[in-house]
Amino acid sequence: MNRKVTVFGAGFVGSTTAQRIAEKQLADVTMIDIIEGMPQGKALDMMESACLEGFGGKVTGSNDPAACAGSDLVVITSGIARKPGMSRDDLLKTNAGIVGGVCENIKKHAPNAIVIVVSNPLDVMTYLAGVKLGFPKNKVMGMAGVLDGARFRCFIAMELEVKMRDVDTMVLGGHGDDMVPLVRYATVVGKKVEDLIPKDKLDAIITRTRNGGAEIVSLLKTGSAYYAPSSAVVEMVKAILNDEKRALPCAAWCTGQYDVKDMFVGVPCVLGKNGVEKIVELNLTADELAQLKKSADHVLENVKRLNL
After folding, report:
1. Residue-number span of the structural domain to which 69 is assigned
2. Edge to edge, what strands does the sheet with 59-62 contain?
3. Residue 180: pLDDT over 80
């Protein structure tokens, strides 16, 4: 292959992302991590599976940030994971230092790359990346809504005992407790979920969606989610590398859309070869807009803590 994706961070999210990209034959993949031998070992393990899984791309590992040179796309998963009882915001200062350093290396070695941020707190880290990189804002985005929407779809499908592929949802806002699952836009084979699930159960599903990551952290005890997050980011990678022009929700730079300005927040976007090619403006009710503004304000509060 002549397309290259670099994944910064070879932990569970990063390595699973690299594996999915390789197995889907989207690009050659390089994993970069500060832990000596870990990205190299995981890359070798993946390459040894290539003849069995039937993929032909290369997977390499390195401890040298310069290995990201020539990347078409870079995924940032670097940072510490949540522990039980921690919120995404609790990771703010530690991960800001880590992500900031990664961005300096991307700017130096891969100045033409599109960048997807996965590190938490996601919206704030995406804002930080936008500042540190200095790239055109359409080339920087955060993975959030695809994952949150997948969780919403999963819980609806489990409640109704239907196939998950038949459920459509849309989740806006920050990747946290203030996310905005749009119930009006949730359907099962075209039927409104509001007409299929009683309000009390639907409210419980919304709450579970907002706490989806925390639920997994509390169950794992020593880690956080990585299967669904990696699938979500690869969905975005595929849309960009294949120029699919897909409408997917992600943390994108808003310039007045949804009354949000100069902020990265979760909104529906058209993703293609240029990154975020368009922000799709849905018709929201006054209450939905208020929820989205509250979510954006929370992101802004944490951005101010970084003193950028």
Report:
1. 4-142
2. 59-62, 28-32, 4-8, 73-76, 114-117, 140-142, 246-255, 261-272, 275-279
3. yes
Amino acid at site 125: M
Q: Kindly report whether the peptide bond that precedes residue 121 is cis, defined as omega within 30 degrees of 0.
A: yes
Residues annotated catalytic, as ranges: 175
Whose CA is closest to 34, among 113, 101, 94? Answer: 101
239, containing H or E segment: helix 227-241
Band of residue 87 on the pLDDT scale cut at 50, 70, 90: low
Rg (CA), the chain: 19
What pLDDT, on a 0 to 100 scale, did the predictor assign at position 82? 64
Phi first, then psi, for residue 114 (nearest 5°) are -90, 140
Whether 260 and 224 share a structural domain: yes
CA atoms within 13 A on the CB side of 17: 37
- Position with higher pLDDT, 176 vs 247: 247
pLDDT top residue among 223 and 186: 186
CATH number for position 125:
3.40.50.720
The answer, as to whether pTM is greater than 0.70, is yes
